[in-house]
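New to this. Look over this protein:
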Amino acid sequence: MTMDKHTTGQKAIDRRTLLRGFGALGALTFASRKGLAASLQVAPGLRPDAGSGTLVILQFSGGNDGLSMIVPHGDDAYYDVRPTIAHKPGDVHKIDDYRGFNPNLTALAKRYQSGEVAVIEGCGYEDPSKSHFKSMEIWHAADRDGRAAGEGWVGRLSSAVWKKAVDPNRIVHVGATTPYSLESEHHPAASFVFPEGYRWLGNEGGLGSYEESDGTPKDSGSGSTLDALRGAYSAARESSSAVRKAALAYRPRVEYPNSGIGLALGTAAALIQGGIGSRIISVELGGFDTHNKQLTRHNGVMTELDEALAAFHADLKGTDRGEDTTLMAFSEFGRRVAENGSKGTDHGTAGPMLVLGKGVKGGIYGKHPSLTKLDNGNLIHTTDFRQVYSEVAAQIFGVESKELFGKQYKHLGFLPS
C-alpha cells in the first residue's frame, strides 16, 4: 500500500509507517494529500440537506460485458456477431421485447419487476480508454484526467457534505484494494477484507518504536507531525473497535453465499445495521475480463452477483436503515460487440449501470446504444456516467453536480425526490 504522486507534504506520515495489516487485517487508509493534521478533526458534522441514507458502491472489475448482463434479445445484430456466446431469447428474463436480464440473474429480474431496480443504459464518456487502469481512474475521479484531477469523486462528495468533520467509520471499503474514488483530503476511508481482523497494529516496523508501555505514542518531539500521529492512532483504534463490535454483534436474517461478494455484502449489512455511522460503503466483484470462454465465465459471475444481491436485499428488507440504502453498480468499460476467436469478447466501451433500492424508481433509463452504428467495433455511449453519480449525490446527500464536477448534469429520474 503506497502513497500516490499526489500525497505530499513534509509533515505527512507514510501510511505504511502509520498502519499495518493491509488486506485481511485491514487498515485505516489516510488518503490526505495535505498531510494527516488536516484530516483529524474528528467531530460530528452534517449538512442539513444531506439526508440519512447509505450508499453502497459495487464495482464490477475487469470490464463487464453489458450485452451479456442486459441482453438485447430482440436485436438480430446481436446474434449475427455473437454466434456462440449470445443468450437465446427463450433463456433470458425478459424486460420487454428488446432486452432482458441474463438467465442467471433470476432474483435481480424479480426485484426489477417489483420496481426497485433501475437499469441505466449506454454509460460511458467521451474518447473512452480501453485500458483497465486508465478507465478505472476516470470512473473513480469522474474526470477524464483521472488521478491528475486530484481527489476521487467520493472524496469530493465527502468534503462537500461533511467539510472537515471526520468520522473514521463514515466511509468504508470492504476489499483488498481501496479504490481511488475514496481518495480524500479530509475523509480517510477505513479499508479491510474481514472486519474481525481490522485492528490497529503497532509493531513489526509500524508504531512499535513510537509507543509507550501503555500503547500510546511516545512523546518524541513536538509539532503537528506527532499530533497527527496521535490523532491517527486514536481514530484508528476507535474505528477498528467499533467495526469489530458491529460485525461480531450482527445476526443476519439470511445466510449469505460463501463467495467474496457475498461476504463483502454481508459485512456491508453489518455496518449499515450496526449504527456506527457508515454512510458510503464500497465493495468489489471481479472476474469480468472475459477474453475467452465468456459464456461459462460470465454466467458464473452473474450467478455470484445474483445470489449475493438477493441475500443482501432479504437481510435489509423491512428495516429502517435497509430501506434507506441504495446500491449503485458500475464497471470501467463494456466489451466489444462482436465475439472474438476464443469465444470471448475484448475490451470495449459503454455499458449499463444498475441502481437498486427501496427508494429507486425502477425501469430503463438512457438509450440503448446501437449495435450497428459503432466506433471501430465498439458501442458509442449514450449516457455520461456522471449523470448517474450526480443524481445519487444530489438525492442521497444533497450535493449538486456543479459543486462536484463543475457542471450541472440533468437527472434521469431513477431517484425521485
User: Anything to note?
Assistant: Residues 15-405 form a domain with the Alkaline Phosphatase, subunit A fold (CATH 3.40.720).
